[in-house]
Write a structure and sequence with these properties.
Blueprint: H1 3-29, H2 39-43, E1 59-60, E2 70-75, E3 82-90, E4 95-101, E5 105-111, E6 114-117, H3 119-122, E7 128-130, E8 135-138, E9 144-147, E10 152-160, E11 164-166
Antiparallel strand pairs: 1-2, 2-3, 3-10, 4-9, 4-11, 5-8, 5-10, 6-7, 6-9
Amino acid sequence: MSRLSNEFRTRAFQLTACGVFAAAIGASVVGCSRNEPPAATFAKTEGQVLVRAKSIKWSAAPAGLPQGAKVALLQGNPTAPGRYVIRVQLPANYKIPLHSHSTAMDVTVVSGTLYVANAQTLDKKKAFTIKPGDFYHLPALAPQLSFTTNETVLEIHGEGPYEMKYANAADDPLKGAAAPAYFFPAGFETNEMNAVNSDAIVDMTF
């Protein structure tokens, strides 16, 4: 057997061994061991948050919104600078008169339907229909009027602090008074990433 052939066989053996070793490492990373559930890896991971829809806790919305709305804080602090995520539950036939926010926000409709009109469409008595799964970006200071006809849930991603200003002072529920102190309580029971025995964890030992 030639020297070249011997070198080829040696190299092939090395590649095969490395492949088996890499596969073994990969299996341990995804937690495919019969002795340790895959969820254990996630439970030890810092910074990851998983909130089940069934565990969301609603609280009354800030007084600056018309009465009846509820909020659930999922991440961050809307009253301070920085990124936040909240869910907002609006009852049926709810209306927020023409208003604007000091910072931009991204809105996704989770359920129900949100109707939005801006300064231009108001003149034509028309509103945009935003349905579940639709995405809506609202720039800072952009005026909008929004309303519902049935209960609607929104998820809002924004940069704090969250502030609202009405185009017509008479529409302000506070009537120009200073907003009372408001604390956004955590809007969920537990971080499901720490729930090793959750019934929604899939066994990956297949």
